[in-house]
Amino acid sequence: MYFILTSSLIVAFAYAVERLALKIRFGLFALLFWLFVFQFALIFAIDALLQNLSPYLPAWLSSLATTVGGFAFVTIGITPLITLVLAAAYLLFALGNWLFDRDEKDDVLLPSRFTIAIDGPAASGKGTLARRIADYYGYHHLDTGLTYRAVAKALMDQNMPLDDEFLAEKAARTIDLAKLDRTALSAHDVGEAASKVAIMPAVRRALVASQQAFAIRSPGTVLDGRDIGTVVCPDAPVKLYITASPEARAKRRYDEIKSSGACVQYDDILADLVRRDARDMGRTDSPLKPAADAHLLDTTEMDIETAFLNAKTLIDQALAGSKH
Ligand code: DC
Known about the structure:
Layout: H1 2-23, H2 27-53, H3 59-108, E1 115-119, H4 126-137, E2 140-143, H5 144-157, H6 165-173, H7 182-185, H8 188-197, H9 201-215, E3 221-225, H10 228-232, E4 238-243, H11 246-259, H12 266-282, E5 295-298, H13 304-322
Parallel strand pairs: 1-3, 1-4, 2-3, 4-5
Helix pairs in contact: 1-2, 2-3, 4-13, 5-6, 5-8, 5-9, 6-9, 11-12
2'-deoxycytidine-5'-monophosphate (DC) binds near residues 145, 225 and 227.
């Protein structure tokens, strides 16, 4: 009776401890604890058996059973103690881990994804700035202009018209963001063609869908283009609108083309840029414009490092705000 009562109490207590241990996920502790209880119960059983059986056994068998039982008693008797010490050590270890984990969980308050939307006209410096920001924060970068350029280039390579929405949409659906080749797509005429292709809603729908899928990558993304803050990522916590005078932008483009060895006229570049601005800002679907909550950054008189430091201040503020 005493044996059954004590065993039941031990088992009930062990079960309660195990539940608690599992709740805070100290799995190994729970296992060791059960092992301890099992060994303890085994000792009880052997002891009870020896006491109850020995009066009925012949003297020699009783003495042998007592010797063997005593030996088992001592051996098994030590193991619950070892198990208990192990369980206690693991409990301490798990407790330490748990506290450490809690610190990490504070970091989880950091957003698991963060999107920075950058818009602006051609040659405003948004691409360089976007790459610099992505490098600094370790975020993925997508120059969405390249997606429109890739569609235009695909049509041009097959001598297809640039204003056939059906063909252009088909091309847009096959664009692989991982295979955008900046060098192959950087030609001036490809940019011009991209601006034409970009007025077609079906093309935009297809490309915007893949850009939005890109935007949710962890730990964060930087997308630059014309409609990122207004259409692609309207909920981005940081939106920048980069601008510069047409003359400053034309000069940058002119220097860039000249340094590659090509022959070009500054006036032609300026005229092209003005025409491109008009097309990008004047189209019905997703025209280039700053989002209502975008921060404007005029880079006419600003070098890239100053622009980056300005952007960094805004981004760091938004990151700090999103932690609370
Ligand atoms: O940024 P870029 O020069 O590579 O862009 C080429 C053209 O693509 C641009 O003139 C308009 C179009 N574009 C767009 O309509 N929307 C975007 N998000 C990015 C580019």
